[in-house]
Amino acid sequence: MKPFKIQNIEISPPLILSPMAGVTDFTFRRLIKRRGGVGLSVSEFISVEGLTRDNPKSKRQMRFDEEERPFAVQIFGGQAPRMAMAAEMAEEVGADILDINCGCPAPKVVKNGGGSGLLRDLPRLEEILKEIKKSISIPLTLKLRTGFTESTINCVEVAKMAEQCGVEHIQLHGRTKEQGYKGLANWDLIKAVKDAVSIPVSGNGDVTTIDFALKRFKETNCDGILIGRGAMQNPWIFRQIQDVLEGREPYQPTLEEKQAVLLEFFELLLEDMPELPALGKMKQLAGQFTKGLVGGAQFRQTLYHSHSPQEILENIGIYFATLNEADTFGDGEIEADKNLEFNSCDAAAA
Ligand SMILES: Cc1cc2nc3c(=O)[nH]c(=O)nc-3n(C[C@H](O)[C@H](O)[C@H](O)COP(=O)(O)O)c2cc1C
Questions:
Q1: Which atom of ligand 1 lies at the shortest distance from residue 230's CA?
Q2: Which CATH superfamily is domain 4-252 in?
Q3: Is the whole model's pTM more than 0.85, yes or no?
Q4: Ligand 1: residues whose CB is within 6 Å?
Q5: CATH number of 255-322
Q6: How far is the CA of 134 from the centre of ligand 1 (A)?
Q7: What's the pLDDT tens digit per position in 87-124?
Q8: What secondary structure does DSSP assign to 126-167, as a single string?
């Protein structure tokens, strides 16, 4: 449970903000990074078809700030030459690490051979990894699921092959493609991969509490942990885990800080995009953020019906004024949010 290195890049603390299409953009990543405890930030997955055809949206998705370093760009696609071209572009913009998406279950992505589609075409994946290795000097990493279906689980085989191709970090989400986000992540398979390769391995899936993270570190001996949805419910989760890893009491944000983080997010959004998409993103985060808080459900209703920044800010003010100091974050369970999970992934892949 100490910092680890990907080539010569130190991941300290060994906690990674997991990429989430439609969520972990330039704004959200900085918001979370500023709360502390994030050892590595990753872009949303970016289409290599878009990047190599000069799509402005794809290029914008590669933006990052110096404060985010170390920073990885994640790309997805199914054609080796385009993947290699996109990897070069990521290195050119100054990314510290190039990550390959080998886990996205969205039909549009899989149909074109990318994302989790690569898990059922290992020769294609091998060709992609080799081509990319020839094109870049920054470290190459892989984020994958355990397999395509329950009966074709092959993460150990994929990890070994990737290591042979020069991949320098494996990040395993303990679910199959078929599972989507249902059920629980299988951390035994994360341990199996950790035991099978000598490059660093990070585990991922369902981490929303300090205890859960510590238990998984111990059980699997993994080098790092990725947290995705848990960061939307509790932006301080990385800092809290880091505190405990380093022998301190976990940081407890005050109610004022919880309110301030929403306002900071809104300010960052408005600096970066027009009002309408900013309102949508604000509703998305505030919705997740207040899950488990007293009166959260009613607040979310009010929020979804707010139509201007002023209205949103006013409603946030009213809500927090009614919360009393005893309130805490939720009990750590991730509430299923199908819209968030599937629509954003599909939309991003479109
Ligand atoms: C809305 C959403 C979008 C996602 N987009 C990506 C993505 O672009 N790239 C990726 O590798 N994984 C993506 N994922 C998967 C997460 O990175 C992570 O593997 C998964 O949510 C499990 O971790 P968690 O339980 O900590 O959220 C996405 C997940 C969600 C919920």
A1: 26
A2: Aldolase class I (3.20.20.70)
A3: yes
A4: 18-23, 44-45, 74, 101, 103-104, 143, 173, 204-207, 227-230, 340-341, 344-345
A5: 1.10.1200
A6: 28
A7: 999 999 999 999 999 999 999 999 999 999 999 999 99
A8: HHHHHHHHHH--S-EEEEEESBSSGGGB-HHHHHHHHHHTT-
